[in-house]
Design a protein that fits this description.
By secondary structure, the chain is an alpha/beta fold. It has 10 helices and 7 strands. It is 41% helix and 17% strand.
Length: 259
């Protein structure tokens, strides 16, 4: 059902980029769940996002994990009582998610790589989580608009974006220029691990300052919100939160072009 619904709302404004993101994460799917193991590199991110959700959304809320990957966050939140939908453009990531879904009842939806509209009703969600998603999409303003559309008044959007103030991002900037040259193709064949990293940098091109994200969210009808606790020091990702005001009027969908 999810695949058919996604297909009805599909469009491919930039198929090269969108399909590149799908291929990147299809290739990572087999080893992705291990990153969320207790000693894995993404275990802290899982705890941070889950804490942000429980600090802002009451028990039994209806949530969307946009770009859910192999589904660790969606399954965790479903296990503590939230009604979860997880969606992704990577069929291999979703296959991992479905295999590991031990009766948690998560609804899994595969999106077309060039999707423009989420196959969800307007105003029905208490929260949308977009963890390390916005950096890959061709049109982040359009995605923020869709998040605003499916949120109920008072709902919250939680997203992580690259923190440009982190030293890791300083190194990635010159490497991202290399990633757009023929050198990257040579590296992909000669040194697969380096080639994979350069592919990630080529796909992850929405590197924006926090002020830009806040302005884009405001244009979507969302308001910056505070989160309980402190942001971890020197983290390469920045966790941002936005709410949909009770009287928000989201701009018409056709205003949101991928650009």
């Amino acid at each position: 059902m999810g695949n058919r619904a996604a297909g009805r709302h599909a469009a491919r404004p930039r198929p090269d980029h969108a399909d590149g993101a799908r291929r990147l994460f299809d290739a990572k799917a087999a080893c992705w769940p291990a990153k969320y193991a207790p000693e894995g590199p993404l275990a802290g991110r899982l705890a941070q996002l889950a804490g942000a959700v429980t600090g802002r959304v009451g028990d039994g809320g209806e949530l969307l994990d946009l770009g859910c990957g192999s589904g660790e966050l969606a399954r965790h939140l479903a296990g503590i009582g939230y009604r979860m939908t997880g969606c992704d453009i990577s069929p291999e990531m979703l296959r991992q998610a479905e295999l590991a879904d031990q009766a948690q009842g998560v609804r899994w939806i595969r999106l077309d790589p060039g999707w423009r509209t989420l196959p969800l009703a307007p105003g029905g969600l208490d929260a949308v989580i977009a963890a390390s998603v916005l950096e890959y999409v061709p049109g982040p303003r359009a995605v923020l608009g869709e998040c605003a559309r499916v949120l109920r008044p008072g709902g919250i959007l939680l997203c992580t974006v690259p923190d440009l103030a982190h030293p890791v991002r300083w190194l990635e900037w010159p490497l991202s220029l290399v990633a757009r040259t023929p050198v990257a193709l040579l590296a992909q064949h000669a040194w697969p691990r380096l080639g994979s990293y350069l592919t990630y940098l080529r796909i992850s091109r929405q590197r924006r300052r926090v002020r830009w994200w806040r302005n884009a969210a405001r244009h979507a009808g969302l308001t910056p919100a505070s989160l309980p606790g402190r942001h971890p020091p020197r983290a390469p990702l920045r966790l941002l939160a936005f709410t949909k005001p009770g009287d928000a009027t989201v701009p018409a969908q056709h205003h949101w072009g991928f650009q």
